[in-house]
Amino acid sequence: MNALTRFDTTALNQLNRALVGFDRLFTERLSQQQSYPPYNIIKKGENDYEIEIAVAGFTLDEIDVEVNQNLLVIRGERQREDDTDVEYLHRGLAYRNFEKSLTLAEHMEVGTASIKEGVLRISITRVVPEALKPRKVQVIGYDN
After folding, report:
1. Scanning 5, 29, 87, 126, which has its CA 20 to 30 A from the CA of 138?
2. pLDDT tens-place values along the chain, 144 residues long
3. Hey, which residues does 72 pair with through a beta bridge?
4. What's the CATH fold of domain 31-82+92-128?
5. d(CA 112, CA 93)
6. DSSP designation for 36
7. Are 70 and 140 in contact (CB under 8 A)?
8. Has this prediction a pTM greater than 0.85?
């Protein structure tokens, strides 16, 4: 297939992971992807989402979740030293500090955050104000 006409699914997949709750705004903003730590974005219902982030090896005190306007920032900062007297034959677990930023759509509210089995789960709900929801307009007729 010609490179100029080929649809780039990689860029679309990156965009889908970067923007939470942007069902209509996928093409407006492309942010740089961070690959560590791995994460999932799950759509649980029409207005409910959950973000799962692998945080194995981090304690509750080492994880920080912050919402600033439409930006969700998750940080993991190790506050303890690794075992310096241990000789690793293989070291595959990356206990490095991280910061992950996700852009939220309008009317997205971050709910609870919890850690279970090494996975941080953050609930997000779309709450559209009543004034912005569609409404029915009554049509009346006049008899002549």
Report:
1. 126
2. 444 444 455 555 555 555 666 544 433 333 444 578 999 999 999 899 999 999 988 999 999 999 998 899 999 998 877 667 888 888 887 778 999 999 998 889 999 999 999 999 999 999 888 887 788 888 988 876
3. 67, 102
4. Immunoglobulin-like (2.60.40)
5. 27
6. S
7. no
8. no
